[in-house]
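fwd from M.: "can u put these together and see what the complex looks like"

so here's what she sent:
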Amino acid sequence: MRITEHPILTFEQKAKLQFVFDGNKVYGYEGDTIASALHAMGVKKLSHSIHLKRPRGFYCAIGNCASCNMIVDEKPNVRTCVTLLKEGMVVKTQLNKGELYD
Amino acid sequence: MINKDLVIIGGGPAGLSAAKLAAESGLSSLIVERDFKLGGQLVKQTHMFFGSEKQYAKTRGIDIAKILVDDVLKYPEMVEVMTDTTVVGLYEDKVITLLHNDEYIKVQSKAIIIATGASEKVLAFPNNDLPGIYGAGAVQTLMNVNGVLPGNDVVMVGSGNIGLIVSYQLIQAGVNVKCVIEASSSIGGYKVHASKLKRLGVDILTSHSVKRANGTEALESIVISKLDNNWDYIEGTEKTIEVDSLCISVGLSPLSSLLSMIGVDMKYVSSLGGLVPYIDSHHETSVKDVYVAGDVCGVEEASSAIVEGYLTGLIVASSLGFKHENYDELYRDFKAQLENLRSGPFGEKTREGLQEIARDHDVK
């Protein structure tokens, strides 16, 4: 759900960016964070608690609370609320603490 | 190892203002910011500020952010900016380790200003971790920066200024704000903000809190309850409200973890939001040449963070041998502005809190 009309702000239609979310081709817009692009698609569950695997969404949007951590281009624990979306990114939901990568 | 005179951690109102005054005094600095842009939390604040002209009153937060960022960009030779950069280590010898694009960088600095700001508190109730439950400021970012709505129906918890302002901005963005609930028996924020909401038909329920949230994959409903004078739930007053979003606006906590890393003397002061450093009138902590400015040394308005930044930048530059030509005049002006911002009944808690962390008897 994107804002189209606003009394103070203007949101111009920006360039579409295609990315992959859990195996599906989806898209956001230039200027989106990964979290905002997913949210606009209606995806609120971004992460899971480590032990009980409870669903988690973003809470702080300032890169502090870690509840939006996802796997981005094979790299785990990426704070998706402060990471800009880029064309071709591969974004996956994370279920564990993250594994070492090259 | 990279050598710097001054490293400023945090590119929000306090950090930017500190860099400006340092540059005006002739001191170069490096601003380190973990977000991909400068401006801190001003970048989402579409409302106009109060205060006096010197702190950009009657200007929208988003425009103040532009002014502060432009002020710093005027000194490209003096102020270096690293965004997308997280401080991962801070050491007593003023070595700072940074992570930037998977690269580990070591910086040796002569002085450090920590201006990390604050983060939103959470509230304890069953299922408070469901997706759809956000900090109110986080929703403000989602709406006003990214242009994305949190959901269709929202309840706001907390009637301080952030809760009231964000509720109004949710309505501006087209979201249905079902009500604002407040645990205290009176509204916390300014009357002018509360009145705007009431005029739009939004109820502000005092002596109410969230008892639990319901949902499986995301928030579906909340149960609110009336509170007695001891803030305990009153049995039989529960009411279920269907919402897909819940905003929590119950205050902010200083982001002081970097200060803990280098053993700065700290104290828990609830009126300042949590764990804060002891500071002297020059904003220097118990660790020499480590200074603080903005919400990290006590949660206040952005206006105060801006002035604290100016003051601290001025002082740090002078301590490193770069005394501003109008030092005395500016110093007195910034101190007077801060005193003015903290005057009146809304500044009382801040004034008391600052006394508790004074390393001398003339703090801030």
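replying to her w this: The domain at 16-92 of chain A is CATH 3.10.20.440 (Ubiquitin-like (UB roll)).
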